[in-house]
Amino acid sequence: MTAGFPETFRGQAAALYFEAFSGKIGGVLGRDGRGERFIASVIDPAFAISAVSGDGATLLGIAGFKTKDGAMVGGGLAEMAAVYGWFGAVWRGLLLSALERDLADGQLLMDGIAVAPQARGLGIGSALLDAVCQHARKCGVAELRLDVIDTNPRAKALYERKGFTAGATGSTGVLRHIFGFSSATTMVRAVA
């Protein structure tokens, strides 16, 4: 596991992230290449941990986190407008704000974990999750927090195996048709 990712992997990181979350954000960001382009423009390696192939040529997985200083995938209206124009940026920003999660004191917030299809089942996701927990420990926070959507039971099972416990579940209401899921459960794990 490596802190961040080399700039040469920016495109791979954006593609991997977008593929993993396209069911959730693809309807808003677009599956016509613009979603990946937007992610590539805002993805920040300072808030990521990556797994790279032994030959250093392929990004096998990436895990992001959010702190008070930023997040792996952020960006604002100006970055969105560069890809979608101002009108497209405003309505996309409004919809995506429904998914925004506030950072609580004493917590590191996961900002997504994605594993390349050819690397699934090899323990990459578990190793990335362990690496984020280690990073959280180094940051001096007490808990690692994430949200898992109802349509991803495999991820929820991984998180439970890794010591996360389920908390509150929130509904997306009528936005379920846009985001492709009905609810998300907050899960936390002590890291100290």
TrEMBL record:
Tagged with keyword Amino-acid biosynthesis: no
Keywords: Acyltransferase, Transferase
Keyword Cell division appears in the UniProt entry: no
Domain N-acetyltransferase: start-end pairs: 33-192
GO molecular function, one term: acyltransferase activity, transferring groups other than amino-acyl groups
One Pfam family this sequence matches: Acetyltransf_1
PANTHER family referenced in this protein's UniProt entry, alphabetically: ACETYLTRANSFERASE
Name of the protein in its database record: GNAT family N-acetyltransferase
Originating organism: Nitratireductor arenosus
